[in-house]
Amino acid sequence: MSQTRVSPPEATAPLAPETRERLMRVGTANVANALFKRGFRNVYLLGIAPLSADQGQLVGPAYTLRFMPAREDLDSMANYARNDNLHRVAIEQCPEGAVLVIDTGNSTRAAAMGDMMAARLKFRGAAGVITDGGYRDAPAIREVGLPCFQRQAAPPATPIALHPIELNGPVGCAGVPVYPGDVIVGDGEGVVCIPHHLADEIAVEALDAVEYEAFAALHIARGRSILGLFPATPESYAEYQQWVAAGRPAIQE
């Protein structure tokens, strides 16, 4: 039986280099705050954690794979080995620089990916992988060096519980809507999703927040109260801008 392809894979637009560079320097919390200011509350993929504590920052446009629960007459190792199996096709079609977003419906009953797939994605230039399920071969995936995020380890073979049903369509990953091309940012705390049309402005604002926090931290380290300093007020932000214009000098006691 042929695999189902509800919506065909489409090209994933690359990020502007300056946007990627900015997002590589910010925290997911900064991104979530900037989105909250614009009314977006459900953007953080809660419960998803980095596979390795020392893996690098993850930034890239989303390329999605959606699973549904497996059915015994359709899902076997023989069918899994077919060249039209969408799970394996996703590994070969995820664009360079993109993040493979795997929606398992929060299932950790079977693997969303293993080390051979991670190695292939790494070779093809993918930015990383996130899933609301889990991976098998986690120690080997860490050795691959591809930034990956999961809910928890899921060693059983994929066809035991998961059937790939769609490539590069809208998904709900960890309860967050992710559309193809939305921008994924992952760090040591977790993963956040930026609607694609907001990526450039969110990157600018989030990086500005990071740099303001560095300014505030210098004052706090010297005993200044957070009142009137953090969060920024119009007065403290003007003070920050003057500090930047002066070349970011050391804060005097």
From TrEMBL:
<dbReference type="InterPro" id="IPR005493">
    <property type="entry name" value="RraA/RraA-like"/>
</dbReference>
<keyword id="KW-0456">Lyase</keyword>
<dbReference type="GO" id="GO:0008168">
    <property type="term" value="F:methyltransferase activity"/>
</dbReference>
<keyword id="KW-0479">Metal-binding</keyword>
<protein>
    <submittedName>
        <fullName>Dimethylmenaquinone methyltransferase</fullName>
    </submittedName>
</protein>
<dbReference type="InterPro" id="IPR036704">
    <property type="entry name" value="RraA/RraA-like_sf"/>
</dbReference>
<dbReference type="GO" id="GO:0032259">
    <property type="term" value="P:methylation"/>
</dbReference>
<keyword id="KW-0808">Transferase</keyword>
<keyword id="KW-0489">Methyltransferase</keyword>
<dbReference type="Pfam" id="PF03737">
    <property type="entry name" value="RraA-like"/>
</dbReference>
